[in-house]
Model the fold of this input.
Amino acid sequence: MPSVKYLLERSAFGVCSYLGERMGIASARVRMYFIYLTFAALGSPILVYLFAAFWLNVRRYIKDNEKVVWK
Done:
């Protein structure tokens, strides 16, 4: 069961863990808030989540390229 949980967390783009680290709360609680907000707002937080995932991937891509250039 822990391997399934790790696989799901890793494939979820790391948005919840990033937000949890930045706000100083557990990533599981952030995931729970996303789930509750998704049901309450009829799915619109999913768009925010996907935008955050896209932005984190762009930031990671930029940081990786900066490291290669300056090596």
